[in-house]
Amino acid sequence: MAESVKVAVRCRPFNQREKDRGAKCIIEMNGQNTSIRNPDTPKEEPKKFAFDYSYWSHDGFTEDADGVLHPNKGSKYASQQIVFDNLGKGVLNNAFEGYNCSLFAYGQTGSGKSYSMVGYGKNRGIVPIICDELFKTMKLNDDANMRYEVTFSMLEIYNEQVRDLLQKENPKGGLQVRQNPKLGLFYVQGLKYVPVGSYSEIEKRIDQGTANRTVASTNMNATSSRAHTVVTIIFDQISKDDAGSETKKSSVMNLVDLAGSERADSTGATGDRLKEGANINKSLSALGNVISALADLSMGKKNARVPYRDSVLTKLLQNALGGNSKTIMIAALSPADINYDETLSTLRAKKIKNNAVVNENPIDKLIRELKEENERLRKSMATGGVVSGASGMTPEGGLPPPY
Ligand SMILES: Nc1ncnc2c1ncn2[C@@H]1O[C@H](COP(=O)(O)OP(=O)(O)OP(=O)(O)O)[C@@H](O)[C@H]1O
Questions:
Q1: Given a cut of 70, is residue 247 above it in pLDDT?
Q2: What residues have CB less than 8 Å from 105, skipping those under 6 apart?
Q3: How many angstroms is it from 71 CA to the middle of ligand 1?
Q4: Of 12, 89, 230, 373, whose CA is between 20 and 30 Å from 195?
């Protein structure tokens, strides 16, 4: 599990709202490391986190005549292509080897999840590039004894109900989630799976599904996705031996754009929006619990129960997360001081084990830790509170608690 989970973070440019409010950038990235500065305590050392990849997409780019963003000479700007090269290629290779893969985008509303996953206009995200490369690689591997089949589905989970994004009309209350009594796996009854024969067919399906997504305006984002979107691509490789008998290698790729993880107070949520928020957080914390239980199991902890049943999202991803699956998480970050709390909780949502370490001089590290410890004790004494837990610098917090 430790090696089969990769975690990346990506910091986007300022949006118009942040520019209008004169926002300051509080994120810094250096190699695999990301640090965040608390705008209220500018003298305090920034908190540091290590990831498999820290993608700087905040500045250092130019838009060409077609609207594609390219890194300026010498800049560390991480383009869509770089993200695909690092993360998407692995998904593709795994699929050809017959592994299941899941790719999640996580983060507050408007932080850039959809940009990384699907992309906008010519700046295609990781999902369309994976699909394009899938068909290109199939063509390259063309062999008379090999047949490929690709099947596509796209659904969203909104308020714990499943909607098929490839169908205009969905039953009231959503499609039913059922459990296969023999395999124990959950599935969506009546979900449309369409065979696709080319990239352009998949592209059309993604556009169709994206247009059917449930979006709503919040303070944070004019078109905010309030649902989890799950694109599933089933990739079958059927080979024929000399005697004419066939064997099938099957891989399921789940590409999941999670709903915004923000807290109620920052979105100005009331009524329906508040209910949506509660459901979003229910499934995000269920997802965090499943991932950490799987990590416990892989570390040899016996009796760890994996709580798949706690949300529709984790039920449907049971097969994609457990078993022979490889998992990639992309956490999307706002650069702005005004989003400090949300961005910090996104950075801490890394419960899963990985091997990346902070590249820090050991003396600097010790000084920083002592300073933080000092600060924590000082605050605790001032409030007469109990000293508990570690200081905020640990890169292994939990997913933020439901509000
Ligand atoms: N890496 C990036 N480079 C350039 N622009 C970006 C990048 N990431 C995000 N943006 C821009 O930021 C805005 C918000 O991004 P996006 O829609 O992807 O957020 P989101 O996290 O999916 O939001 P929601 O959860 O509300 O759907 C978009 O206008 C997008 O074009």
A1: yes
A2: 113, 114, 116, 117, 256, 257, 258, 329, 330, 331, 332
A3: 18
A4: 89
23 touches 336 (CB < 8 A): yes
Closest CA to 213 of 204, 201, 226: 226
**For 252, which DSSP code?**
E
User: Which residues fall within 8 angstroms of residue 275, CB to CB, at 6 or more apart?
Assistant: 159
Structure token digits, residue 137: 């690689």
Is 110 labelled a binding residue? yes
CB atoms within 10 A of CB 357: 10
Question: Closest by alpha carbon to 365, among 8, 99, 47?
Answer: 47
Expressed in angstroms and rounded, the spacing between residue 315 Cα and the centre of ligand 1 is 28
Alpha carbon 22 to chain centroid distance?
28
Q: What is the ipTM of this complex?
A: 0.97
Q: Tell me how far the alpha carbon of residue 334 lies from the centroid of ligand 1, in angstroms.
A: 9
Cβ atoms 250, 98 nearer than 8 A: yes
Q: Which helix (H) or strand (E) holds 207?
A: helix 199-211
Q: Which of 114, 224, 285, 311 is catalytic?
A: 114
Pairing between strand 325-333 and 5-11? parallel
**Which residue among 114, 261, 284 is best mutated to probe the pocket of ligand 1, counting the most ligand atoms within 8 A of its Cβ?**
114
Q: Tokens 């998407």 map to which residue?
A: 88
pLDDT confidence of residue 272: 62
> What would the pLDDT profile of 263-318 be if each residue is shown by its tens digit?
544 445 556 656 666 667 777 778 878 877 776 777 777 777 888 899 999 999 88
What are the two backbone dihedrals, phi and then psi, of residue 74, each rounded to the nearest 5 degrees? 80, 0
Is residue 66 part of the annotated active site? The answer reads: no
116: which 2 tokens?
Answer: 């990384």
Given a contact cutoff of 8 angstroms between Cβ atoms, the answer to whether 117 and 259 are in contact is no
* Average pLDDT for the chain: 81
Inform me whether the pLDDT recorded for 237 exceeds 70.
yes
Listing DSSP states for 337-350 in one string gives: GGGHHHHHHHHH--
Tokens of 5: 């989970």
Distance CA 395, CA 49 (A): 5
Nearest to residue 257, comparing CAs of 362, 368, 119? 119
Q: How far is CA 333 from the centre of its chain?
A: 11
